[in-house]
């Protein structure tokens, strides 16, 4: 942390009148008096959410990233701020190409001119964390080389230290400090950011996702994921297969290329639910800049996933719970949704089931039987979060990325096919998934999964059974010992009662004589 950075932040706060924004949310006598002084000047010309977004952009890439993560926490921040922060994009100037070349040489042991048959000096893309250069290997493969910005770790550590200080101040002074959990939000951001700074971790995420949608699998037609070139990867360099396609947001180009847009929208929903419920491992940064569509003749119309710095994972319990919730929603079984929340412990056990059912029905019922153009998952989620606060629902950290991804999927679907019925598209998939989980197919799959463990201890079963059957029966001796202990305890209790009685008698005689 440097004093110059603190001064820079202070200047930005004053420039965008964030002092008024912060003080208005603190219910403290000192803050109220200070706010009166601050408001004596000219009132802000821009709305508070816009001022906050502009301030974060001016403070640099780390604060921009923080705003992006914060925009997903609609359970914690007002709607207008969440919507505005969702507009944050990385528009960062590239760092010098000679620095990128030096980073590659230090990481991989040779300059780009030796490592690659061809290396494009000018980056094709530049973001807050890294920039990307196209290259060609000596064997002819076209690749994309992602290079981490120099000095990022030290830079973010300084800014994170400042954020932790601000979080402690907000938690102490704001009446909503505990509910907003500012320290937890900063810790969550810290985790995401450090994960993005480790390009080997991103490469492993890419490799896992590619394996889940491998060309040899029955899901290879859904999603294309670049192959990792491990010999050219390090903590700050990530080399992958170069992918050719059209950004999913460029609808007209997709139509001109012959892509079926409505089918593309339906397959996007299928990809999302496949990642979440089948794999429990999903791409959690599915904004249009990271999703392309192949325009190559042999793979025309297939989705292409890029940028694997942020992925989400779910446990078997989370997957089962979420699938049952989704199915209950699609079937409009709100009592089942309420019961699932209570059984999972996400709401207090004394919550009245019928009250929670009624609240959930009031949120969801108006949105059924409508195409995606007439509904907003963001609004549904926001109303659900408002309901959750009323019933003291505990927000599960592992579901925050899922919420963010679901909003990304909504945005993609709205652009591709506004008439898409999200509920009807997802319902058959979830019903099939539940059938595979709880039906005969699920029993067979679980049996096959456990077969490896059974193979280890089944040969020992006869010996263990014989040892259990021939083991001497000590139950009678244990019973006798317990009976003896009970008798001893009864004797001790009688003795203690007698002593107390004698003591009380002596005390009574002493009091009588001294009366």
From TrEMBL:
<dbReference type="InterPro" id="IPR004147">
    <property type="entry name" value="ABC1_dom"/>
</dbReference>
<keyword id="KW-0812">Transmembrane</keyword>
<dbReference type="GO" id="GO:0005524">
    <property type="term" value="F:ATP binding"/>
</dbReference>
<dbReference type="Pfam" id="PF03109">
    <property type="entry name" value="ABC1"/>
</dbReference>
<keyword id="KW-0831">Ubiquinone biosynthesis</keyword>
<comment type="similarity">
    <text>Belongs to the protein kinase superfamily. ADCK protein kinase family.</text>
</comment>
<feature type="domain" description="ABC1 atypical kinase-like">
    <location>
        <begin position="88"/>
        <end position="340"/>
    </location>
</feature>
<keyword id="KW-0418">Kinase</keyword>
<dbReference type="GO" id="GO:0006744">
    <property type="term" value="P:ubiquinone biosynthetic process"/>
</dbReference>
<keyword id="KW-0997">Cell inner membrane</keyword>
<keyword id="KW-1133">Transmembrane helix</keyword>
<dbReference type="GO" id="GO:0016301">
    <property type="term" value="F:kinase activity"/>
</dbReference>
<dbReference type="InterPro" id="IPR050154">
    <property type="entry name" value="UbiB_kinase"/>
</dbReference>
<keyword id="KW-0808">Transferase</keyword>
<keyword id="KW-1003">Cell membrane</keyword>
<keyword id="KW-0830">Ubiquinone</keyword>
<keyword id="KW-0472">Membrane</keyword>
<dbReference type="InterPro" id="IPR045308">
    <property type="entry name" value="UbiB_bact"/>
</dbReference>
<keyword id="KW-0067">ATP-binding</keyword>
<feature type="transmembrane region" description="Helical">
    <location>
        <begin position="495"/>
        <end position="512"/>
    </location>
</feature>
<keyword id="KW-0547">Nucleotide-binding</keyword>
<dbReference type="InterPro" id="IPR010232">
    <property type="entry name" value="UbiB"/>
</dbReference>
<protein>
    <submittedName>
        <fullName>Ubiquinone biosynthesis regulatory protein kinase UbiB</fullName>
    </submittedName>
</protein>
<dbReference type="InterPro" id="IPR011009">
    <property type="entry name" value="Kinase-like_dom_sf"/>
</dbReference>
<comment type="pathway">
    <text>Cofactor biosynthesis; ubiquinone biosynthesis [regulation].</text>
</comment>
